[in-house]
Amino acid sequence: MPQLPAPDYPADVREQLAADAREVIARYPDSRSALLPLLHLVQAEEGHVTRTGLRFCAELLGLTTAEVTAVATFYTMYRREPGGEYQVGVCTNTLCAVMGGDAIFEGLRRHLGIGNGDTTPDGKITLEHVECNAACDFAPVVMVNWEFFDNQTVESAKALVDDLRAGRGADPTRGAPLCTFRETSRILAGFPDPRPGAVEASGGAGPASLAGLRLAKGDGAGPARVGPPRGAPPSTGPRQQPGEHLSSHDAPQKTSASDPDHPAGPVTEEGEG
């Protein structure tokens, strides 16, 4: 059966959303360009993009709900159903997987008792696989509401979600302090983060990310070198100084730990007995 038209927001909610939406739309020469931030705006209202939110965006931008739905279902940062206060994404793309991302996801799945895309019964955690977050030099990476938790292990990731569920909070390895998923969505819609010091705390790239830049500039003495100079023997001493945040590539996990059901071993070439 076809669905009835989506209900409207309550009058006071719609009035506030419309005021915010007009502010967003005014930033663009073509109102259609405001669709992505408007989807974040309606997601901030209800925690996911509802049929009501799709209708709201379509009406304000002069689009059809089909056009808005096509965009909302294309990008994975838009939720299509209710989720948790904290979205915990485990990178299982190639490098993070090799470094232990698959093992972390499996450990969290068992620890939380939920599967990919599911939410804990207390409404705190939504667990999901995520694709590369451009933080390969700090693999394996877990993201909570799009903030970085670098160089994770199965045990550290379990402790992280336990702290979040218990209300103890957690500090990202880098970036701004954590806020809720709805608050994050409003920031992504283009509205200022009202928390004191949050913008300044966002910082920049970590030392491992900048190692190549320093080498290109001829500065080979920096502490963030993640490998010996070409042709030089590998160093046997410690590479990380107190207080530094270097890449976990200096102490990688065994490859087989990323997929316990398929441990690494000899591979028979095609045609061989």
From TrEMBL:
MF terms in GO: 2 iron, 2 sulfur cluster binding; metal ion binding; NADH dehydrogenase activity
Cofactor: [2Fe-2S] cluster
Pfam families in the cross-refs: 2Fe-2S_thioredx (PF01257)
Region spans: Disordered: 210-273
Superkingdom assignment: Bacteria
Keyword entries, A-Z: 2Fe-2S, Iron, Iron-sulfur, Metal-binding, NAD, Oxidoreductase, Translocase
Reaction(s) the record says it catalyses: a quinone + NADH + 5 H(+)(in) = a quinol + NAD(+) + 4 H(+)(out)
InterPro entries assigned to the protein according to its UniProt record, in alphabetical order: NuoE-like, NuoE_dom, NuoE_N, Thioredoxin-like_sf
Family the UniProt entry places it in: Belongs to the complex I 24 kDa subunit family.
Function: NDH-1 shuttles electrons from NADH, via FMN and iron-sulfur (Fe-S) centers, to quinones in the respiratory chain. The immediate electron acceptor for the enzyme in this species is believed to be menaquinone. Couples the redox reaction to proton translocation (for every two electrons transferred, four hydrogen ions are translocated across the cytoplasmic membrane), and thus conserves the redox energy in a proton gradient.
UniProt name for this protein: NADH-quinone oxidoreductase subunit E
Organism: Streptomyces telluris
Gene: nuoE
